[in-house]
Structures are given as C-alpha cells and as structure tokens.
Amino acid sequence: MLGDISSVNRIYLVAGFTDMRKSIDGLMAIVRDTYNLDPYSNSVFLFCGRRADRIKALHFERDGFCLLYKRLERGRNDTFRFQWPRKASEVRNLTRQEFRWLLEGLTIDQPKAIKPTAEKHDF
Fold first, then answer.
1. pLDDT tens digits for range 10-37
2. CA-derived radius of gyration, the chain
3. What is the value of pTM for the model shown?
4. How many Cα atoms sit within 13 Å of 33 on the Cβ side?
5. Helices assigned H by DSSP within 23-105
6. Nearest to 18 by CA among 66, 57, 61
7. CB of 82 within 8 A of CB of 53?
C-alpha cells in the first residue's frame, strides 16, 4: 500500500531523525507546529528513525488518518537501510521518482538522473 500513492498531491520527507514511538497525533504535531504544513492536505508525510531501517508515512484520507509503517528485513549478512537525508529541521518535497528511489534503497539525490526543466521554449 505504501508504494501506491497515485491519489496524493504531494510527498513530503521530514529529514533528520524522528522518534519512531510517535503515533498519529505526535507526527501530526510535527507537521503542523514545526513545519507549518497542513496535515489534513492530500499529502503523504514520511518520517524515519535513527536506525534508518523503518519509516512511517502519515496520510489523511476523507474520513481519518492512515499511519503506514514499513520495516526493512535483514538477511543473514545484509543490513538494509533507507538512504535518508539527515539534515535536521528540513522538509523536502519529493517527486514520485524520488519516492520510488527511496523505497528501492537508493538515495533521492541521483546526480546522473535527468532533471525536468521548468522553462518553456517556443520553437
């Protein structure tokens, strides 16, 4: 379910460490009070803890909040972690491609990726 975000308008990543013991009310307070964003908007807010092996996603649907939790499982000799930006006190608006990279274990800053341009040209 976390991979299907086709109905949301924006995806926000809350960089740095988040206390993963927080539930809906605590995460809502971070979104509203720390970053002055509307937790009731049609957005997904992503949070990650210190170990970077689990994330929480907060999303408001028409009738209430949905809190999604994803924990990566470790193989025998493998350590799986999300490539989470650690610069604290920052919210980053992700594209759908960056969201896919994140869930695939890649960094959201892909230096060789083709970036869309905002300019329009009349040729």
1. 999 998 889 999 999 999 999 999 999 9
2. 15
3. 0.80
4. 6
5. 24-29, 96-103
6. 57
7. yes
